Amino acid sequence: MLIKHWCYYESCILGAQRGLVSTYALETLVLYIFHVFHKSLDGPLAVLYRFLDYYSKFDWDNKGISLFGPISLSSLPELVTEPPYTRDDGFLSREAFLKDCAKAFSVPPINSEENPQVFSKKFVNIVDPLKQSNNLGRSISKGNLGRIRKEFYFGACKLGKILQAPACFSANEINRFFRNTLSRADVPVSSPDDVLQAASVSASPGNKGVEGVSKGSSPNNSCDVLCNQFGYIKISDSNNALQNLVVDRPA
């Protein structure tokens, strides 16, 4: 729900009828993040950051995405999956489980032998887990792909910067990051503590925190709690993306 709200209210990239991302496509993209990065996800903000960071760097021009890994567009119409790099020992068992689920819930097409359907290449290519010939990214136009890439990139940069800031500043920045969502009348936020609790992520003792973030064992206030919890979200520093951030979107 956090990712859906960000996509709809903050970045305005959700809506197949407007040439943007469909809800089903978004759910598939999120499910892939859980599938591959399961061990490193400790809460909603960790999932959102990983989602933005991963898809902002994804090679949409040459690859598509499926639940089982990226697909090479050069191999179409055959769907050749590139297994994602992961050190998660449970990945293969989850992959087998997903394949069993897809097989159980998929509905075979009528007259499949007489009229075989193939995956149609579009500007964004997302394989439907329940019908592999269905491209869930077909609604996204070429122009909107560029817009979506920018939203993912600037979203990842902003959130990454927030998660590395002192916790009390982070609380205010989180409010700004979700300002359109929080301004809606149907979003109940009764106090700053509620915002901190909603934005927080569960701390996992086995994970390493962001350098410079305090990890006191007995936090004294909401800001300390948020600081400790943010410390367990790993921030990507590839290509020095967070070294010199330009926070505001270009006009």
Automatic annotation (TrEMBL):
Q: Which Pfam families match?
A: PAP-OAS1
The record, for InterPro entries, names:
PAP-OAS1-bd-rel, PAP/OAS1-rel
Q: Which domain of life is it from?
A: Eukaryota
Which SUPFAM superfamilies does the UniProt record give? Answer: PAP/OAS1 substrate-binding domain
Ranges for domain PAP/OAS1 substrate-binding-related come to: 1-182
What is the protein name for this chain?
PAP/OAS1 substrate-binding-related domain-containing protein
This protein's species is Zea mays
